Amino acid sequence: MTPPPTQPAASRAEAEPAVVPRLATDALTAWYGSTSGVRDVTLACRENTVTALIGPSGCGKSTLLRSLNRMHELVPGTRVTGRVLLDGYDIYERDVNPIQVRRRIGMVFQRPTPFPTMTIAENVSAGLAIGPRVSRTERADIVEHALKRAALWDEVKDRLDDSPLELSGGQQQRLCVARTVAPEPEVILLDEPTAALDPGGAAHIEELVQELKREFTVVIVTHNLQQAARVSDYTAFFYLGELVEVGATTKIFTTPTKPQTEAYITGRFG
Predict the structure, then answer these.
(1) pLDDT recorded at residue 189
(2) Do 23 and 219 meet the contact criterion of CB atoms below 8 Å apart?
(3) CATH of the domain at 258
């Protein structure tokens, strides 16, 4: 039998379906009343990568981040137009439960936010209240696994019933990471997670980000350009509420396309 002709490489590439990014925005604009915080942002975040959002203060980075898991809408008078797609599905569709969205897209804030009236273990398991019920044994296993993922288990395994306020700032931030990963999200959003930490605590978080991307898609807002260069695979530069340029971090930091990006990276403004 005569074998079928070999399909040209270009044709094979055209026949392959495009890879759907884990998280993406399509012409996203986030509003505060009649004022836009970010405008017409189209951005794709690939699975198991770290995307850094950089730019001067007030350029819309944190507004965009909060829009990615519907936290923005918790502020009175706000709204979002455009789309945010998680695995290709718009999280702003009317039939989507925002609480379930926040379970799938977890968030860690600038300052550590442990729940002060809960123990360390209860903090980690707090997110499990939404979703399938788990037994006490399963809960204990989830707490241990989450604390190990957050590189905190060895430091607190004998203190699980203590108050989280007894931990250092860096430990509290890693506890918040453990609380975020415990419900098994697909995406983790980090809003300047090292801004309130000393250099040692910041180094722990940066190391942790590299570990987290093995299991999750990570988006991080940072004012620290060196940090963005160290931890991210892709970098998006924002200025005056607009996405100016996005690309591989090595390219953005060495050969940016836009003059505004180059000016910011080289310290000429911002």
Answers:
(1) 98
(2) yes
(3) 3.40.50.300
